[in-house]
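Data availability excerpt. The first of two example chains:
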Amino acid sequence: MTYASLEDLTERAGTDEILQIADRDDDLVADPDVIDAALAHADNIVNGYIASKYPLPLATTPPLVLTWATSIARYFLHRDGPPDYVETDYKDAIAALKDVARGLIAIPDIAGAVPEAATGTHLSDIPSQVFSPENLRGWK
């Protein structure tokens, strides 16, 4: 299951645009493999950013995730360079996903719940001191 679908892309961009960017064999039908590849790529990007805050796969697709996945897939379907407004949508989606990864944006689920803050202990191991008065004795 992908976060977005061809119907979501068509609703966002319109049939004409989708045919221009996804009908690679000129049969007036968006090529399923082209659409599937763009949607899978969008899912991978979304998952990469939200994996640190949410368990994957998401059981349902929240509206925010749908919006971001649609914007990202649409951007990648424009293989010859997207128009400015498509690029802006893409950049906005990536910026929002970065905010999710930093914990600045929470994605509510269907019930409106947000993820709990992660708890735990931070462990670190530091090496012994390399430069000390004893190690540097005799150096001028």
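And the second chain:
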Amino acid sequence: MSVFHYGDNQHKADGRQVIDFRSDTVTQPCPAMREAMATAQVGDDVYEDDMTVKALEQDVAGLLGKQAGLYVPTGTMSNLIAVMSHCQRGEEIILADQYHIAIDEASGASVLGSVAIHPLVADQRGAITPEQVRNAIKPDDSHFAISKLVGLENTVSGCIQEQANIDAIVQVAKEANLQVHMDGARLLNAAVAQAMNPARLVQDIDSVSLCLSKGLGAPMGSVLTGDVAFIGRARRLRKMLGAGMRQVGIVAAAGRYALANNVARLAEDHRRARGLAQGLQGIAGLQVAMERVETNMLFMQSDRMLELGDYLARNGIIVAAFAEQCRLVVHKDIDDDAIASMQQHTRDFFAS
């Protein structure tokens, strides 16, 4: 099966021009971002001497309304550090069963942090309810893990989480003296789609992880934010986990460029995702979940999905096709011509 290739619509893989819908992590730095990286002021970040890193951390903390930030290599590490900063051995995080911390991060919280994961069944949009969280909080009983942290995520598979529901969950957590962490890998997609201040989306949430290497288009990095004491604990854990970095301002500069130039343009990804979904509707043998197209992702289903994945790959389009399901992610390297090409090749496949 040739569904998974590497490349994008600016570079060639195996000598062919390709369009890559697998994820918004596949974006390439633009020339201006590369220039910002090449000219970045750098220092030793373990000594906290890298002024570009410090500026990035301050940028993200300010954007999210938090006191301080910590630059880390990946979103997975950012979430792991957050959980380990909030929780001790034998304590637990309560979160939805669809969230990345629960299913996509190799159970690092449990394996490395000895933190129990209590997953709650989410609805089709990835939401859990305040009642579910309240019922999951354990009494002070030696038979149970100690409830310490509630985990949230926004967006979830491209779906924007209702702000009133988030606020209500945070209130339940606070009433029980629990902390709250937000995996905000694509939080800015939610902010742009709703025309809301990002800080409002995470109001009263204790820690937030923001990814720079997805829709924002930087080559790597996330920033974990919270209060000064929390970030102090997080910095020690970053070192413990092997991510004490040196002249890392070179890539932090890409993150600063992304924040300055690539946030508002997320609306273009959302527009193109809706247009792609609308163009794929009505194709016999293919179902598109229009109700889930809220930001830059869409999901489609067919009993011929693996065949479609192979067909598209042969025609220079890469998708993540699994059995009967496929996720398409629109990002800054997907333009209107790429959308049109995807629509046409898909129609041609199902017409054959």
